[in-house]
Amino acid sequence: MKEKTIRIGTRRSKLAVVQTNLVEQALLHTGMGIKTELVLKQTEGDRILDKPLLEFGGKGVFVTEFEQALLRGEIDLAVHSAKDMPMELEEGLGIVAVLKREDPRDVLVTLAGSDLSRIKEVRIGTSSLRRKMQIQEIGKRLWPDQTVRCEDLRGNVQTRLGKLAEGRFDAIILAAAGLKRLGLWEDSRYQYHCFDCEIFIPAGGQGILAVEGRINSDLEPVLKRLDDEESRRCLFLERKILRLLDAGCHEPVGVYSRQRDGRMEVFGMSHRGEETKKIHLWGEITELDSLAELAARGLS
Ligand SMILES: NCc1[nH]cc(CCC(=O)O)c1CC(=O)O
């Protein structure tokens, strides 16, 4: 490949930049003499902070502007949190590399020293229907004599933590992956209660960084080196299930998969109409399509 600088697009948030730096590091580590340049963009999703995402176009709001830049050739790659990616990508673009999955768990975050057992009504900040649904259910076990009230909370991770610190909520729910990547995991201002993925099912793709690019580009040999096979397989399966479900963002859906002893294990939850459905299935890694269909059937 000819020596050139790879232009990588990402959002301006600190998490997005840190995540893109991870991709840059991985590119440097290929030892293929690659140079990178960051192209930061503010997206619709970053500008509109006073409404839940689902009121103005859902997942695409973080991605569309980068897709246009990729198609125009202004950037060569875009780095996304896989869970924020829309189901259908623009023609000619694809997920060209999948990095090794970071901790996929959801975490209940409280301020250091706070004791939720003393609170009659626990106010939890989250805008995600999936998180609201699951914390309501788990809350009945965690706090049998208390009530849980979920309230909307948007903004980047630091903004959300700021609102917790202001006392607007007793707890908030965030992804472990974001907290770890932002160096907040050891932060003594907060207490973290991690939920096992089989109990509190993460969003499809949670913890995974996906690199989007033009398909069949001359970067492919380089991008192969960044790719983690198991994470790619899990992301493929989780996205396939979501696509089959054709779940809009109005429906809470969680999907999580992992490889165990050479087989694929998948957990899912959905809530359509009045009913909450849960699945736990096993399948062969060579037959992900049929596993996805089985999972989607169980969740629809
Ligand atoms: N929706 C925002 C978002 N997108 C990705 C992450 C965390 C990183 C990841 O899941 O890879 C977060 C923050 C959060 O949900 O706490």
- Overall, the morphology is globular
- Unreliable stretches, pLDDT < 50, 5 or more residues? none
Question: Major sheet: size, sense and barrel closure?
Answer: 5 strands, mixed
Please write the CATH class name of the largest domain. Alpha Beta
Number of domains: 2
Determine the CATH topology of the largest domain: D-Maltodextrin-Binding Protein, domain 2
Q: What is the fourth-level CATH superfamily of the largest domain?
A: Periplasmic binding protein-like II
H/E element order? EHEHHEEEEHEHEHEEHHEEEH
Verbal overview:
With 300 residues, the protein is α/β, with parallel strands linked by helices. It folds into 2 domains: 5-102 and 204-299, Periplasmic binding protein-like II (D-Maltodextrin-Binding Protein, domain 2, 3-Layer(aba) Sandwich), CATH 3.40.190; 106-194, D-Maltodextrin-Binding Protein, domain 2 (3-Layer(aba) Sandwich), CATH 3.40.190. Helix content is 30%, strand content 28%. It contains 9 helices and 13 strands. It has helices at 14-28, 44-47, 64-72, 129-142, 157-165, 176-181, 220-224, 229-245, 288-299; strands at 5-11, 35-41, 77-81, 93-98, 106-111, 121-125, 147-151, 171-175, 190-194, 209-214, 253-260, 263-272, 275-284. The protein has a 5-stranded mixed sheet, with helices on both faces. Strands 7-6-8-5-9 form a 5-stranded mixed sheet, sandwiched between helices. It has a 3-stranded antiparallel sheet with strand order 11-12-13, with helices on both faces. β12 and β13 form a beta hairpin. α8 (229-245) packs across α9 (288-299). The protein is globular. The relative contact order is 0.16. The ligand NCc1[nH]cc(CCC(=O)O)c1CC(=O)O is lined by residues 81, 83-84, 157, 174-175, 177-178, 206-207.
